[in-house]
Amino acid sequence: MSKDKVSSAMFFVLLAGLIWSFGPLIVRNINNAELIPWQYSLIRGSTIFLILNIYLLLNEGVKFTNNYQKIGFPGLIGGTCLGIANITFVFSITTTTAAVTLMMLGAMPFIAALLAYIFLKETISKSTLIAMIIAATGIILISFESKETGTLFGLINGLISSSAFAGFTVSLRWRKKVPKLTTISLGGIIAAIISLLVLFFYDSNILTSLKNTSLSALHGFLVCSALILYSSNAKYLPAAELTLLSLTEVLGGIFWVWLPLLGINEIPSTNTIIGGIIIIISIVFYGYNARRYRFRY
Question: Running DSSP on this structure, what letter comes out for residue 209?
């Protein structure tokens, strides 16, 4: 594998994380987002499914539908994980601060490394284990700030979302011939179907305001665009490094909702800041050692 392909993959995965980072800003502009999580998830998931299928139709023609027959068990697992990640992210970001949700996503590289070791036999180095311990310390510190029911609920959903997305990432590397974009499409429709069933079960209104619908669809478009970049470059990088590089989402997301110019001005708590710094240290430590190992060998 050439260095150019690896460098290109790293750039596009970093870019994917940056695109995802605008998600929390969109959520904060939705009116009463905490009251419409299932409607939000339904619209976002449907948008992902629709855009992916249009994209595949334009690139492959009507034969793209054959990809659903080729998806196999890895694709089914990946799509299910992505669907769960989409739903739990919505519940997390609408019930706690953006900082807490995004810091929970900071656990992704280490969860992915563990899953990749178990299922793909991708080796976990000593430096990765150390980084995991450091990151866990930061997450525990943030959880001390989460005594309120809503905040703790958001934190738990953030961890579930992080774990599910790590599972999706590992599935991308499980069998490289599985149609990756079809896996993403499946994740979108799974999230949409689950949301629709819940809304029917509780006899809730499926529709929401035009503003909320538009913003939910916009978020789906950004998520979908970034997932195309992310999944298309999955074959060039180990699962842990993929999720590590995408954590530009964490840094960018906290910055956008804090930046007074954008009108949200959501200031993270002291514990969240300290916990976030600890997680960032773990990421930098992991990245430095992973890069040094790669170029040594």
Answer: -
